[in-house]
Each structure stands twice: as structure tokens, then as C-alpha cells.
UniProtKB/TrEMBL annotation:
The protein's role, per its UniProt record: Catalyzes the formation of N(7)-methylguanine at position 46 (m7G46) in tRNA.
Keywords: Methyltransferase, S-adenosyl-L-methionine, Transferase, tRNA processing
Listed EC numbers: 2.1.1.33
Pathway it works in: tRNA modification; N(7)-methylguanine-tRNA biosynthesis
GO cellular component: tRNA methyltransferase complex
GO molecular function: tRNA (guanine(46)-N7)-methyltransferase activity
UniProt-recorded name of the protein: tRNA (guanine-N(7)-)-methyltransferase
Length: 234
């Protein structure tokens, strides 16, 4: 499946859909599990999605934007079985691979969305519905002329904050220094959020090492984490 980049009023969209073929195993698990675990954004009915109904239980729900090949998502779901984990990704191979991890670990607390998380948050998630949002290693769009395509903007952070419960967290990680600085700037500018730390957060031991982080370390780039919490009464 292919799609071109989309740039909307907010200036971004969550991830770029790549033309990547699924493996035989990914196709098999898609055919057997997608109807149970997944939703395609285009097929969602208008209005707010019943997250508890989709997961089959009431539990804190964390949205991961850009779950990639899903190994980190699966590890986080294994480590926190009392949390509902919703992975948003656009390309089928990544979602298929995540479903293979779900099958391997017999996970019941993972659901998958194929589509753009900006639209999903705006159109289908109620205010104060999420206990957390995670954005790990979003596309850095390193060329200056492409910075306008970066996901983490003031408008998007404000949208995320409106969907977080009081006390909910926004956790960001990137290995691009100028993007990290911009993330810090736009998150600190959002009045309903507060930085949990004085500047950068120490790397949480519970956050799995992704292939992007391993590559960054091999290439000598420093990985920075930011953890912001929604203020109570916001």
C-alpha cells in the first residue's frame, strides 16, 4: 500500500505510509487476527470511539503513535497487563509484525489502528480519555526545509493534552538534538502540561531499546526523553 505525504492545517501528519510488502507470516496473522484486534481509520464510524468496548474492559489506555514493527509495544504490553495499549501505525507490515508479537505472547491488552493519529485523536478520542501518549523516535525530517512536517508541534501537543486525563503523561523520545530542543519548547509552552523533570527526563529503564535507538547509539547520537504530565484541573 502506498500513500503520499499529507500536510494539513496542523502542519503535520503522524507517520508516512511506506510501500513495504508483508511477509507470509504477517499476511497470515492479518487474516486471522485483524478483525479482532485492528481497526482501519477509514472504517471507523463518526464520533468518539468506545475504547472500553473495543478492549472489552475498563482500564487505563495508552496510545502509542508510530509503533513501527511493534516489538517495543509488545514488550510494554507484557510488562503492564493492567493497561490497554493502542498502537497507531500506517503501514501494514508493522501492524502485521505487531500482531505476530501479540500472538506469540498471547496478549489481550493490545489493539491496533491503521491510520493517522492526528485525525484519530481529533475525531475519535474523547477529552480526558487517555492515561498516556507515547511518541518514540518520530520521523525527524532532518532537512531544515522539511521541519514543518515534523509531528510534534504546538497544535498537536495541545490536541494531545486535551485528550489526556488529569495526571496523564506525554512521553517523547528522539535522537535528533534540534528536534529534542523543539519538543521541549512546544511542550513547555502548553499551559495544561508540566515537565515532570527539570529539562530532560532520565531514560526510563522500562522503555525498550528500539532499533532506532540502537542505530543512534551506534552513530554517536544522544537520545533524549521528555515526560510531561497533565495538570489537575486542566
Amino acid at each position: 500500500m502506498e500513500a503520499t505525504d499529507r500536510v494539513r492545517q496542523a502542519g503535520v501528519f503522524s507517520t508516512v505510509r511506506r510501500s513495504v510488502r508483508m511477509t507470509v507470516g504477517q499476511k497470515r496473522v492479518w487474516q486471522s487476527h485483524w478483525s479482532e484486534l485492528g481497526r482501519t481509520q477509514e472504517d471507523l464510524p463518526p464520533g468518539v470511539l468506545d475504547l472500553a468496548g473495543w478492549f472489552g474492559r475498563e482500564a487505563p489506555t495508552v496510545l502509542e503513535i508510530g509503533s513501527g514493527m511493534g516489538e517495543a509495544t509488545a514488550q510494554l504490553a507484557v510488562a503492564a497487563p493492567d493497561v490497554n495499549h493502542l498502537a497507531a501505525e500506517v503501514y501494514p507490515a508493522g501492524l502485521g509484525q505487531l500482531m505476530l508479537w501479540v500472538e506469540k505472547y498471547d496478549l489481550e491488552n493490545v489493539r491496533l489502528l491503521q491510520g493517522d493519529a492526528v485525525d484519530f485523536l481529533r475525531d475519535h478520542v474523547a477529552e480526558d480519555a487517555l492515561s498516556g501518549v507515547r511518541i518514540y523516535f518520530p520521523d525527524p525530517w532532518p532537512k531544515k526545509r522539511h521541519h514543518k512536517r515534523r509531528l510534534v508541534t504546538r497544535a498537536f501537543v495541545a490536541l494531545i493534552a486535551s485528550r489526556l486525563q488529569p495526571g496523564g503523561t506525554l512521553h517523547l523520545a528522539t535522537d535528533w538534538a534540534d528536534y529534542a530542543d523543539r519538543m521541549l519548547e512546544v511542550c513547555e509552552a502548553e499551559p495544561s502540561l508540566r515537565n515532570t523533570y527539570d529539562g530532560w527526563a532520565p531514560r526510563p529503564a522500562w522503555r525498550p531499546v528500539t532499533k532506532f535507538e540502537s542505530r543512534a547509539q551506534a552513530e554517536g547520537r544522544e537520545v533524549r526523553d521528555l515526560i510531561f504530565t497533565k495538570r489537575t484541573g486542566s
